[in-house]
Specification:
It is a single chain. With 697 residues, the chain is of the alpha+beta class. The protein has two domains: 291 residues, Thrombin, subunit H, CATH 2.40.10; 261 residues, no CATH class. It has 25 helices and 21 strands. α7 packs across α21, α10 packs across α17 and α15 crosses α20. The two termini are 41 Å apart.
């Protein structure tokens, strides 16, 4: 993978160059945008962008695109909902879905939309509370203070969500207050075949020809929510060199990590992740060969695994690039040299890098137990995670809010309960396969003589344990989960449910390794990362962006092609290319609705395009808007060069990949006859009947 690197830009040691940066709404480089593009967003402009862009709890982005709660996101971001609403007789993933009336909109069993309404800087409060503390005392105090602030912010209101966001590795803390919507209903989704046209071979590639879009609607009190802060649809869409803004929730970047942390990722965690995901993909691929129903119920999980595997490969390649990694080392050495040259800074910060390195060495000794006892690689099933949540809730909820495990604090309970009691279907055969795989890997990695392995398996094989607990559990039924939650510790401890008993059996060991990690590794890294961040502030100032944390961000850029292995890549593809790219065989087989519509689709309509906006995973579903807050596209991917963007940004080749706004309109009108959606996006546009109507589903 070829990339050009600018050392200062890679580490955030100096103000970002080019179109780099996933910026917070309260620290956006408006003057820089004006200098390069002639447009300077003011705070009012940024506030409207913030309110129009939303987050899907669970890992994606979206936006309001009508005043009546209509939300646009990616098809792959709504796959879970689409799959959960499907049955063996009506597969909406394969056939698509369109609600011709409001009454036909179907409620997603487990989807939540969050709209950021307020940002408060609480850095001073947290720094004051943790001053002079280290180790476990620092970690416990920080968590307690964070929980207290989140609880006060939400004030027990289920329609509010508050997240304490760590920025600059602890250099700053912001409290984000969201308006929460938990009644979300499916309005329109195309067929999987066009939403993910090209499949895994084309994933993270360009040119692309995908219609990766889905529309849902948010409701409150059984009525569509009024959303005055929405993005109107652009009349002309995006053209080459146009200024673009992407508002979304990038999941994670690691540009501010120390060399010791990057070395651990490169040499230990990433190779293990690649191996685990490769083997899991193999298991799921074989599972799908059992029959069409097995393929249907596992397709969403396989999609996620394949996407994660390809992304991880790209990130690993970036870290293996010797020149790239050498630049990270050189930049850290330069920063440390500046710290050491100033006696005051040296006293405050010099030891931080070495302390992080020691913590990473300690993590190496805990890694296997942490992965397989606590982090889900071994006991890998939805039902087990549900059982463990119920077991832990019974222990945690009686405690003071600030003393609980973070996922059980008051601010997180609404989302946790929505997930636990969701009516989304769970499939026994897939659960057995997943748990068998995880237990087999656990025995392989930890060894048959490991105390935890012996405790969990006893005299049984992984398949026997998995089959027994899955077939015997009643946790498929949300009412059974609710009864255990309501009954508390007494009900959980008395339960004869084999999945609950497995969770009770495993929990002491899982908690012990988690505590050891938090006390001896996580707390050390957090405290010293905070010191490294402050050292950067003292030396380079604060005109830089923080690493992504799945919190709302803005990036700016333009529609622009790039060079790939000596060839110029044009920035925009056309809908005619979709048909030229089709072979009739998966993953290049178009759905019947598209094959029938080829003659009426205007072939020159833009299909997908690329921009220089800086994004990362989590930006899927982000709107691409122009300076007038008009939708010109929908982010669904990055190119292969962008995968190294977790560790650095190179404007010459890193690209955002988006569905063009014109392609969405053309498909809604001429392929699907989705007039109700068209009328919301472009009021008055349906006065002329659509050329063709082949509504999905």
């Amino acid at each position: 993978m070829k990339r050009l690197v600018v050392i200062a830009a890679l580490v955030g040691a100096a103000p970002a160059l080019a179109d780099e940066g996933m910026w917070t709404y309260n620290n956006f480089p408006a003057a820089k945008v004006k200098e390069k593009y002639g447009f300077q967003p003011d705070q009012q402009w940024l506030d409207k962008l913030r309110l129009g862009a939303v987050r899907l709890a669970g890992g994606c982005s979206a936006s309001f695109v009508s005043p009546d709660g209509l939300v646009m996101t990616n098809h792959h971001c709504a796959r879970g909902c689409i799959e959960q609403l499907s049955t063996a007789k009506q597969d909406y993933l394969a056939n698509g879905f369109y609600a011709k009336t409001q009454g036909e909109e179907k409620q997603c069993p487990a989807m939540e939309v969050n709209q950021l309404v307020e940002i408060t800087d609480v850095t001073e409060q947290l720094n004051k509370a943790t001053a002079s503390l280290t180790g476990k005392q620092y970690s416990d105090t920080l968590k307690a203070e964070m929980s207290k602030l989140e609880k006060a912010c939400s004030n027990g209101d289920d329609k509010v969500r508050c997240d304490l966001v760590t920025l600059y590795q602890g250099g700053k803390y912001n409290l984000y207050k969201y308006r929460r919507f938990q009644d979300v209903r499916l309005v329109f989704a195309p067929e999987h075949a066009i939403a993910f046209f090209g499949g895994d071979p084309d994933n993270f590639e360009f040119p692309r020809y995908d219609l990766d879009v889905t529309f849902v609607r948010v409701y409150q009190d059984k009525q569509p929510v009024k959303t005055p802060d929405y993005f109107k649809w652009s009349e002309h869409g995006a053209k080459e060199n146009d200024l673009t803004f992407v508002a979304g929730n990038p999941g994670r970047t690691s540009r501010g990590l120390t060399v010791a942390e990057l070395e651990y990722t490169r040499d230990v965690s990433m190779p293990k992740t690649l191996m685990y995901l490769s083997e899991l993909r193999g298991m799921l691929t074989e599972f799908q060969k059992r029959g069409p129903e097995q393929k249907r119920i596992s397709s969403n999980l396989l999609f996620g695994v394949e996407n994660g595997l390809k992304a991880s490969k790209g990130r690993h390649e970036a870290l293996l690039d010797k020149k790239f990694f050498a630049s990270k080392v050189a930049a850290e050495q330069e920063l440390r040299k500046k710290v050491d040259a100033n006696p005051e800074l040296k006293k405050k910060y010099a030891a931080a890098w070495d302390e992080i390195a020691k913590a990473e060495a300690q993590l190496l000794t805990l890694r296997k137990d942490l992965n397989y006892l606590e982090q889900g690689n071994g006991l890998s099933s939805s039902l087990f995670h549900t059982a463990r949540a119920l077991v832990r809730a019974a222990d945690e909820l009686p405690k003071d809010n600030g003393q609980r495990l973070r996922e059980f604090n008051d601010a997180n309970l609404t989302a946790l309960k929505a997930q636990l009691f969701s009516p989304a279907p769970i499939y026994a055969e897939l659960e057995i396969a997943r748990l068998t795989f995880g237990l087999t890997k656990m025995r392989e990695e930890l060894g048959a003589k490991h105390p935890f392995v012996k405790k969990v398996l006893g005299k049984e094989s992984p398949a026997q344990v998995a089959t027994r607990v899955v077939k015997g559990t009643k946790l498929f039924d949300p009412k059974a989960r609710q009864a255990l939650w309501d009954g508390g510790k007494k009900a959980v401890d008395a339960s004869k449910d084999p999945m609950v008993q497995l969770a009770l059996l495993a929990d002491p060991d899982s908690r012990a390794i988690r505590k050891k990690f938090e006390d001896e590794v996580e707390s050390v890294i957090k405290k010293n990362s905070e010191l490294v961040a402050k050292a950067k502030f003292d030396i380079y100032g604060t005109s830089q962006y923080p690493d992504a944390t799945f919190s709302p961000r803005v990036s700016f850029g333009s529609v622009k092609g790039y060079m790939d292995e000596g060839q110029q890549v044009a920035p925009i593809t056309q809908m005619s290319g979709t048909f030229e790219h089709a072979t009739g065989q998966d993953p290049y087989a178009l759905p019947k609705s598209w094959v029938k519509s080829e003659k009426v689709i205007t072939g020159s309509t833009p299909m997908n395009f690329v921009t220089t906006n800086d994004i990362i995973g989590g930006n899927s579903g982000s709107p691409v808007v122009n300076k007038n807050h008009e939708v010109v596209g929908l982010v669904f991917d990055g190119n292969i060069q962008s995968l190294g963007g977790e560790y650095g940004f190179d404007e010459s080749v890193n690209r955002t990949v988006a569905v063009h706004s014109d392609a969405i309109i053309e498909a809604l009108q001429k392929v699907y006859g989705a007039t109700r959606v068209l009328e919301e996006l472009r009021p008055g546009s349906t006065k002329v009947p659509p050329v063709k109507a082949n509504p999905a589903g």
